[in-house]
Amino acid sequence: MATKDYKKIELDAKYVPKKSEPYMCPEHLAYFYQLLNRQREELVQNNDSVLNTVRIAEKNETAGVGDDLDNASSEQEVNMALRMAGRDNNLLKKIEAALARIDNGTFGYSVVSGEPIGLSRMLARPLATMTVEEQEEYEQRG
């Protein structure tokens, strides 16, 4: 029996994976695939916005627009935007890794034990890579 291609499944807008369905069935994978791609697209758009903020600040500084207070405020805004972009880039890497796990069939399974992470946890934290117990143990070890 050929499995459905999760990339081609059209889900109802209100669809949420259910525990009564087989774990990480094509519909579950389609749900997470679409969710993660939406998040990725949003982060990419945010990065474009950060680049525009930096470009505008650089143009203003080069053109000599504004006084020292304006320039300091602009510099602070750019620094904040760059910090947020760094955070977004880290999140983007995690999203890309999760999408790769969907593609290779390991999404929803622990990278430590290979055990199912659980649908509730995956719905709460789609980027999870360990079961709750494994994550707690990892955090305790520090």
Write the layout of secondary structure elements.
Layout: H1 26-63, H2 68-104, H3 119-124, H4 132-141
Helix content: 55-70%
Specify the biggest β-sheet: none
- Tell me the CATH superfamily of the largest domain: DksA, coiled-coil domain
Helical run tally: 4
C-alpha end-to-end distance? 45 Å
Counted beta strands: 0
Query: How many separate domains?
Result: 2
Radius of gyration, in Å, reads 21 Å
Q: Report strand %.
A: under 5%
Q: What is the fold-level CATH name, i.e. the topology of the largest domain?
A: Four Helix Bundle (Hemerythrin (Met), subunit A)
Return the average pLDDT rounded to an integer: 88
Shape: elongated
Structural class label: mainly alpha
Question: Can you describe this structure?
Answer:
It is a single chain. This protein has 142 residues and is an all-alpha fold. It has two domains: 23-105, Up-down Bundle (Four Helix Bundle (Hemerythrin (Met), subunit A)); 108-142, no CATH class. 64% of the residues lie in helices and 0% in strands. The chain is built from four helices and no strands. It has helices at residues 26-63, 68-104, 119-124, 132-141. The longest helix has 38 residues, at 26-63. The protein is elongated. The chain starts with 25 loop residues before the first helix and ends with a helix.
